[in-house]
User: Fold this.
Amino acid sequence: MTLSRLDLFDDVAVRLDNVSLRYDTSDDILSGIDLTLKQGSFSFLTGASGAGKSSLLKLLYLALKPTKGEVSLFGRPTGRLARDQLSALRRRVGVVFQEFRLLDHLTAYENVALPLRVVGRKEADYRADVEELLTWVGLGKRLHARPSTLSGGEQQRVAIARAVVTQPDILIADEPTGNVDPEMGSRLMRLFLELNKRRGTTVIIATHDLGLVRQVEAPVYRLSNGLLVRDAEFGGSAAGRRRTDPAKAAD
Amino acid sequence: MARETSLLPVEDAREAALFFVVAALCFLAALAALSAKSTYGAARAWTAEVEGELTVTLQDVDRRAAEDARKLIEKTEGVRAAHLLTKEEIDELLEPNFGSRGLPDSLPLPQLIAVTADPGVADMAPTLQRELAEAGYDSAVDEHADWAGDVRRVLAITRLIALTAVALLASTAIAVIAFATHAALLARRDIVDVLHLSGARDRFIASLFERRFWILGLRAGSVGALMALGAVAAAIFAAKANAAHAGLLPDLSLDFTDLIVLVLTPITAGLAARLAARITVIRALKSVM
Assistant:
């Protein structure tokens, strides 16, 4: 089985069928979750702390196997894929981790370039792109700074740049604007929306920030007691809120 | 263009400790390998020297009769040479026991004939004994190969012990490296996770650790081999300084094979470290999705 960009033409980017997850002997963190996200969709994931948002995201970026059920990306059930095929799928998924997970011994530039090195790209080919991306997120003068010398917000922007540098087909972000000021938060949201619109990137954002959710006309999924429900309140039909349509946001 | 920074951080204190342990193990392994090789060489030299060597002892005969016996022996089929030892030669043989002044003239000494026979000839001692008895000589024939067999057996055991030591030390080094790799993997779990989730294949991640531990093994092995070389050189120097009393020691020297052992030590250590790192990392990664 080979994986190629042709899979983009498959309609469904993410599909969860009756997925449950538990750690060791605990109760189910996630229980019987069904979810289908189409290619090019933009979604929010909300829920109280400990509701299982990060666990659900881990299933989506293939860090965990479900205890029960099946996770499929681009129409491929991941439970039956070989390790190299899983790696190939992961390359199509960009992740902004809540705790950033930047490598301390690398500079901001090197951290952003890391996914490109992993796929064997030569520095001469990507140098300009990485520098431009870091400049765009406001870190053009801090290319060679180590993460330990950056503020929380700066680290978060490096983490976001790293997640989008490969122009992934799916972008998963766990609280991506948690450490930045509102202006930078809006700017980063515009980046996500631009990726969503121009490249058809499927974007999934887990957040507590209801203000952020209200900015965008997009479906909201809420986790509660291990169950996933589509939130009617923020489901895109509520009138009177100032929202941005992903299809228009990047214009 | 500047060289890309390694995706693994530069070595830390843990690796310095591992370097020391691997260097020490390589030193011991190289020394054991050189000892095994030296023992093997000594055994070959000793046995080759005594193979086909016999000593005939004649009781109650004068020198003229002993010379006749020597001629008789020399004519025997399979004998290459027979030499009747002089009084001076016997004194020299007994010098370690009786000192440099030699034996008193009043002490009766047997006549000794050193015989060199073809090594392949069987039953040379009984043949000579029979022929001398038929000619009326009261003789005893000592075939050196009889006691050389004991020496050979002892040396074979010594060699086996040395080779076992080499194998044990090499296994210990591999186990230590595997343990250290696993510890390094745990310590750098964050890096491994980020690489893994960025789509790095297991082989790519393993290659980072392989490269790191290959270099560590190579460097530590080189230090160990150099220390072993120093130890052997010191032993050779000490042996040469006391050459007069080193008769029972094997001939100590460094030849081409020894140098190959010393060159192979770091390469083996590097390869073992690399293999241990690869197996450990691949196995650890397989435990995650």
Observations:
- Strands of chain B lie at 53-58, 79-84, 111-117, 139-143.
- Chain B touches chain A at residues 1, 4-5, 7, 9-10, 190-191, 193-202, 204, 286, 288-289 (CB under 8 Å).
- The mean pLDDT of chain B is 84.
